[in-house]
Amino acid sequence: MPFSPPLGDSRQNSNARPRNSIDSFEIQFDDSFDQALDNIEIETPHHKSGNSNNLNRQQQSDPQREEFEMRTLNSADPEFVDPNKKSIDTDRRPLIDDHSLGSNGGSPYKYRNVSEVALNPSSSNIWDRTISNIKMAGSRNWKKFRSIGSGIELTDQHMEREIHPDTTPIYDRNRYPSNEISNAKYNAITFVPTILYEQFKFFFNLYFLIVALSQAVPALRIGYLSSYVVPLAFVLTVNMMKEAMDDIQRRRRDKESNNELYEALSQPKLVASKDLKVGDLIKIHKGSRVPADLVLLQSSEPSGESFIKTDQLDGETDWKLRIACPLTQNIPESDLVNKITVTASAPLKNIHEFLGRITYKGSTSHALSVDNTLWANTVLASSGFCIACVIFTGRDTRQSLNTTKPKVKTGLLELEINNISKILCACVFALSIILVVLAGFHNSDWYVDIMRYLILFSTIIPVSLRVNLDLAKSVYAHQIQNDDTIPETIVRTSTIPEDLGRIEYLLSDKTGTLTQNDMELKKIHLGTVSYTSETLDIVSDYVHSLVDTNKDDSKRTASGMLSTSRKDISSRVCDMILTLAICHNVTPTFDDDELTYQAASPDEIAIVKFTESVGLSLFKRDRHSITLLHGQSGTTLNYDILQVFPFNSDSKRMGVIVHDNQKDEYWFMQKGADTVMTKIVENNDWLEEETGNMAREGLRTLVIGRKKLSKNAYEQFKKEYDDASLSMVNRDIQMNQVISKYLEYDLELLGLTGVEDKLQKDVKSSIELLRNAGIKIWMLTGDKVETARCVSISAKLISRGQYVHIITKLSKPEGALNQLEYLKINRNACLLIDGESLGTFLKYYRREFFDVVLLLPTVVACRCTPQQKADIALIIREFTGKRVCCIGDGGNDVSMIQSADVGVGIVGKEGKQASLAADFSITQFCHLTELLLWHGRNSYKRSAKLAQFVMHRGLIIAICQAVYSICSKFEPIALYQGWLMVGYATCYTMAPVFSLTLDHDIDESLTKIYPELYKELTEGKSLSYKTFFVWVALSFFQGSIIQGCSQGFTSLLTDDFSKMVAISFTALILNELIMVALEIYTWNKIMVLTEIITLLVYVVSVPFLGEYFDLESMLALKFYGELLFIVLISVFPVWAAKAIHRKLHPPSYAKVQEFSNV
């Protein structure tokens, strides 16, 4: 591992010195890390006095210089290293080599803090060396190095690793992380403590626990112990069972992955995935999952090519080409095990970056890049098999580094109820203290009275609230999963259905979520004429004459092709189709006698399928040649591929140089984005206009051009290009300069293609509905900027005429804020930003960036890493406090989904990983509107009403208790005891109250006709401090009326106590049944039955309540007259007030419902 020299002249001199190593392999650190390492001095041990004296003289002449000595393992004399001997193997070994340690586990180097030495020159003594040795002791492989002053720790995760397949899996088997996958949230030890913490962190449950525990004290016991303990125990048991079942399912899925068997070259039997170690060489067959991060060594294809599916890593379903290292492609398997060394960079999150080196027999080396890697959880797609070396396992893999651990999610409604419960608790304490104060402190046990009052009034915070809310969530989950309009929807997290009605930000993936990832070429334009899918027969007729036209060379001038203006239309079409059929990176394969195409871009597959449909098929392709089949004549056209210039986000174009074997001609063909191709092709007056027209149609455009090269021109280009490719300084720049010099100017403009990425069903209407509902939509994709823009336009994410502000390639903080100035003025614009620029803003100007973009209606982020997606979701939640929903379908979306308040996964072509990690699983994007606008609305409004009604039910009985206690000279005596308290919260009121979970205020169709109604939900008006205090006032009024009138019709005498309880409790039950009826918007059979059955249950149970009621008084007609009077006085004013308020200030949903019924 190379260490940077100190800043200043010495660093410059060091950089100026030529490298002796053939292969240079360095890991770059950030500035802060370099500064920390600048404080470190490394000294080589002085085995020989002569060497020591020379070294001392060197240090005196250049005190800032750090000396590094690379020691070869194969040296015959370990005590002596010839400084003049330059070993190739030595140059390739990392600076800190684990095997270079002595047999006693000591280090050949001594580390001292330079700042300490400078402050205390006399510290270089035996004591200092002893302390240094103690610090390094116990670290067998020197895994950690700590700079005392900076506190920075270096581990294997920060250092390059050197892997020897014959020894590393054995001797370093415990050095690197295990490859066992574990997505479980709990284990046998943490399960109960974690669940209890998650439950009792809510004030509700903690309060109930304290009340239940208080019943263990005889002086505080009131009523049955079970009435306090059973409901709480029920809630805890249900939650534990649900969490346990979910975790068991996760463990089963993990077990399946961990026990997958693989063939290891050094093992006599198959090895389970969880037992693979760094350095193992494994053989992977078609369709197998890659179990760890690997370096591809050999492929069964002679060319060394293999294709992989990366949909679970980067979200793209296109197959990616991977190439085996040419150094190892054809060597025997025994040499793979014993004679190669792989050097890999430290584990990184970036899935598009890798630096490595492979060495064969200690002398020959070859560089490794991301094209030689197979990342974990990708799938081998090509036929045959491949052999690869494990370089990263477990938490070091790219997949693991880009995945965040799931957290227990809590709904916003629960947090709001938790805050309200604190107010109720404060009221209980205040009321208890006030009553004791009013009674006076004559009683020496006044503190016991306070505790008894607290227990008496504990119904203000009803323990049944948690039971009702948890059961209600289960009802909502059942309704969602059985909704025929959104089939196959699965609720995986049943604790947050109410949050579906509170979403304000929607973060969506693109590929497979908004689009089907199914490309189709819709149009080609040749300047004067265009062809669409309806006119393909004309193009086919022209292509039929392609072979004859190629044979007729008499029409060709000495310089090559005729100019575009002089060609007939047939030749122009043939040239266009021929170029499209050659200029790509598509490889045809036969899978079960069926021709399929493999490519890194679906656009290219769409173009190749188009040329096939018009009569020119891709028949064969490898890295050096391409063969086309002319369908009409059956003739094959053979071309040698001399050079390929792949597409990347910087160049925005792809080119190829081919040699036409039929005519011995050299051609440079190129296609790319109009923004760059406009400057490369010959002058024209139509390209800009037509690209704009196609973009407005939502088509992805590519400009097609070509140039004929002479043999001498090609050879001259090749010579200079090869020389530039060997440069170690500014290699890419020099290569591009050669391309520009010889190739990229005055290309013959052949035409323009328009490719459509088919959208998911009803995506346009769904996005329009969600935007009208007040939801801000962000699209986060790993795809290219041009692609994302086209899809955004076609999906109506960017509306017609909306300005798109583009920020790309912003790598430095200087001037970054200036890029946001326009967005501060135009708040209706759309921001299109790439991952590099986004990373810059997140690092330097996080607050300033989000203060601006959070107000925009649409943001499109391209080239995002999985972790960036998750970071955006977390930052929006942190800065706004609003509910964020994330939706995706690939493994690269898992972190984003788990970071959101509500995660939605789509089951599609990219597998089920996102679906399994999500809170809700759907099959199409359009189902999201039903999930949010209908089920989200119902879940939130029902739970809000249910929670407030349960509170009202507890408040009203507490008010009755308070009125009685006040009138009975402040005696802490229970008004309703024993079964009355248990029955009131269960069989006498629970069913009608719980039937509110079946209510809805408007019809389902109206939620989509008037999506604006959703905005009211996000404001949280259904459950707020205002509505809460309205219910408190209502409870105070009704409780005072019921208990006051009951005492008025009877008396407070002991003989009349049972009469008073009978009329009071009966009025209380009837009042609650009527109040439920008043709160229902839409009646159904279940609601009617619960009302009738509950009333009958109470009537039937009355004869068995002689312990609490005066049954004789209940047989008198006077009893029913008094009961009717109390109920009317209690209910009628409430009904009248609600009716008048609804008439004068009708809510929006009432207006809509009334309008729809007209």
Automatic annotation (TrEMBL):
Localization, UniProt: Endosome membrane; Membrane
CDD domains: P-type_ATPase_APLT_Neo1-like
Active site, per annotation: 509
Pfam families xrefs: Cation_ATPase (PF13246), PhoLip_ATPase_C (PF16212), PhoLip_ATPase_N (PF16209)
Protein's UniProt keywords contain Zinc: no
Ranges that cross the membrane: 228-245, 423-444, 450-469, 946-966, 978-998, 1028-1049, 1061-1081, 1088-1105, 1117-1137
Coiled-coil stretches: 238-265
Organism: Naumovozyma dairenensis (strain ATCC 10597 / BCRC 20456 / CBS 421 / NBRC 0211 / NRRL Y-12639) (Saccharomyces dairenensis)
Residues annotated for ATP binding in this entry: 509-511, 604, 647, 671, 700, 781-783, 863, 869, 892-893
Positions with a binding annotation for Mg(2+): 509, 511, 889, 893
Domain P-type ATPase N-terminal: 173-221
Keyword Magnesium: yes
GO molecular function, one term: ATP binding
Region (Disordered): 1-107
Basic and acidic residues: compositionally biased ranges: 82-100
Cellular component annotations (GO), alphabetically ordered: endosome membrane; Golgi membrane; late endosome; plasma membrane; trans-Golgi network
Keyword line: ATP-binding, Coiled coil, Lipid transport, Magnesium, Membrane, Metal-binding, Nucleotide-binding, Translocase, Transmembrane, Transmembrane helix, Transport
A biological-process GO annotation: vacuole organization
EC number(s) per entry: 7.6.2.1
Residue span(s) of domain P-type ATPase C-terminal: 916-1146
Membrane topology according to the record: Multi-pass membrane protein
Protein name: Phospholipid-transporting ATPase
Enzyme class: translocase
Family: Belongs to the cation transport ATPase (P-type) (TC 3.A.3) family. Type IV subfamily.
Main localization of the protein described in the UniProt heading: membrane
Cofactor(s) this protein requires: Mg(2+)
